Amino acid sequence: MSGYLSGVLVAYLLNLIIAYAVFLPGAGGILNLGVAGFVAIGAYASAWLSNEMEWPLAVTILLSMGVSALIGLAISFPILRTRGVYMVLATIAFGEVVVGLLINVEAIGGAAGYPVFEFIDLPVIALCTLAVVLFVVWLMSTRFGLALRAIHDDEPVAALFGVSVRGVRVAAFTIGAAIAGLGGALYGHHYAYVDVIYFTTLVSIYTLLYVLIGGVQTPWGPIVGAAVFSLLPELFRGATEWRYVFFAAVIILIMAVRPEGIITRALLLRLKRRGTIAAPTKEAAQ
Amino acid sequence: MTKPLLEIQNLSKNFSGLDVIRDVTFHVNEGERMALIGPNGAGKTTMFNLITGVYPVSQGSIRMAGEDITTASDRSRAQRGIIRTFQNIRLMPHLTAAENVMLGQTCHSHGIWSWLAPVGLQSSRSRKEADHALEVSGLLEYRDMLTYDLPYGVQKRIELARALSAKPKLILLDEPAAGLNPSETDDLAQQLLDISASGVTLLTVEHDMHFVRRLSQRVIVLNFGSLIAEGTAAEVQNDQHVLEAYLGSDRKLEEEVAT
Ligand SMILES: Nc1ncnc2c1ncn2[C@@H]1O[C@H](COP(=O)(O)OP(=O)(O)OP(=O)(O)O)[C@@H](O)[C@H]1O
Ligand SMILES: [Mg+2]
Question: Where is the ABC transporter domain (chain B) (predicted)?
Fold first, then answer.
């Protein structure tokens, strides 16, 4: 595989992992615009653990996911008390606080950035991405996933049928934080360098944007959303100056045509039904 | 069978100074079919919202099966068997009919394993139960369809199926017959009688007095938030206070008898 191709692919896969971190709470109606904060926590935690402790990568990555999850759990309580635009602002504030703290810790390089010695390449990243996709697809098919989607549609009614609205949302937010931590850890080990400027609110905004473009109704949404975001600009590479103008125009067009995201539940059910109509032999035989 | 299941004691509710429920006391016995009627704006839906914990009460108490639930959460009331339908259908639009029904089962999900049960699989126990519930209600053909563009009558039946899948002790029905045609109304009445025969207690808000007569053993009447009459359907229909209450409203009791 050419360096260019594998470079684009790694970027896509990392974006996809982070997309799932935003998707999970998003499926329950939580807008997390602080995901870059969790990515940063995962990146720095794993970098520090492998640089300083020299623990095996599998351990440092799992631990960094745990750290990110714990911080996610802790802040989910105040954040989930807020609603709408206040929740958006609270999560942005979280991301900014994380970056603000990290930049002041000399042990991890401070403003100068932090080199990461252990290297992770495409195959491991691809495997991790696959694991995340399978995990989220599975989770969304459990009663937990059903409850999460019910909360998204009608929170009061979900509670009237026994859904612990707070518990489910806290869990979704926390698991999302762990996934973001994984994305961050892989990021640091792949690019061999972490710096707070990679984890700004702009990253969070873009991630939420392409998650919404893909759609939060099904776990397949992020795959498409992250693809649009990571691969589309590459297609416009020829038109160097106009590249991002085209890109923005396409994004706006998609949002206008598919306001609930490209992949919706209705779309998947329609495709499935068409599939069963195309194959009527089974019923004819009965 | 005269043990009270739901006991409402001196219940009041006001919304920023407006008294919507005023000092109401009544009870529903176990296994009973009771109706709650009253002119538009009398406070019937608000009463349901208080019983299910959507709103906190201003004064008074609510007991379920002998236990005080006045301040219990909406979720814990569902777990105690209080389940409702809605005057304006509140199905989850992005869930299929089967998933909406499976949501009803959630109040009996305890422990991590039941939360991780794979309800999305066609072969899962939850899914089979939901399919069975839909089949019993004649709704199987809709099971994999999103509910938002299904016909109104079908949506109402799915709502009822969802409520039943919660295995309620007490089911609160907010105008279940509204918007249904006569034959649908007839089927519904029969279905509710069957549900009652299976041991579920019914409290029904309904304007159609013909339906109320057929379904209910006892009727209570609310007007401007106050309880003004109680008795059999025939008794309350001839009650002077009730006639006056409906005389002042834009909806006449006679009309409701006619429909
Ligand atoms: N959340 C609320 N805030 C303020 N006022 C409310 C609220 N909910 C209900 N009300 C008021 O309480 C009164 C009773 O409303 P409610 O919906 O309980 O009546 P209802 O008997 O169900 O009427 P209908 O037959 O039209 O359904 C109405 O005047 C309504 O405007
Ligand atoms: Mg009402």
Answer: 6-249
**Residue B65 to residue B257: CA distance in whole angstroms:** 34
pLDDT at A230: 86
By DSSP bridging, strand B201-205 and strand B59-64 are: unpaired
Q: What's the distance, Cα to Cα, between the start and end of chain B in Å?
A: 32
d(CA A89, CA A71): 18
The CATH number given to A3-285 is: 1.10.3470
ipTM over 0.85: yes
Residue B258: pLDDT band (50, 70, 90) is: very low
Query: What confidence score (pLDDT) does residue B252 get?
Result: 56
Spatial distance between the Cα atoms of A48 and A33, rounded to a whole number of angstroms? 25
> Measured between alpha carbons, how far is residue A152 from residues A40, A172, A258, B32, B162 in Å?
28, 12, 18, 36, 18
Residue B86, in any domain of the structure: no
Residue B75 C-alpha, separation from nearest chain A C-alpha, in angstroms:
5
B42 to chain A, minimum CA–CA distance in Å? 23
In this complex, the residue of A141, A150, A266 whose CB is nearest that of residue B146 is: A266
One domain, residues B27 and B136? no
Q: Which two tokens stand for residue B101?
A: 């029904």
The answer to whether residues B174 and B44 touch, using CB atoms and an 8 Å cutoff, is yes
Q: Which domain holds residue B98?
A: 91-168
Closest ligand, as measured to the CA of B46: 1
Q: How many C-beta atoms lie closer than 10 Å to residue A261's C-beta?
A: 25
Asked, for residue B62, whether it belongs to a domain, the answer is yes
Q: Which of B168, B189, B216 is the last residue of a domain?
A: B168
Is B13's C-beta closer than 6 angstroms to any atom of ligand 1?
no
Rounded Cα–Cα distance for residues A207 and B7 (Å) = 52
Stronger pLDDT, B135 or B248, i.e. the higher one: B135
Contacts of A135 (CB under 8 A, 6+ apart): none
Rounded to the nearest 5°, which phi and psi values hold at B16?
40, 60
Amino acid A189 reads: H
B215 and B149 in a single domain? The answer is no
Q: If we measure between CA atoms, which residue out of A106, A110, A102, A117 comes closest to residue A193?
A: A117
The token pair that represents B197 in the structure block: 């025969």
Q: Are B121 and B17 in the same domain?
A: no
Q: Tell me: the pLDDT tens digits for A140-170?
A: 999 999 999 999 999 999 999 999 999 999 9
Query: Hey, what are A189's tokens?
Result: 């080990």
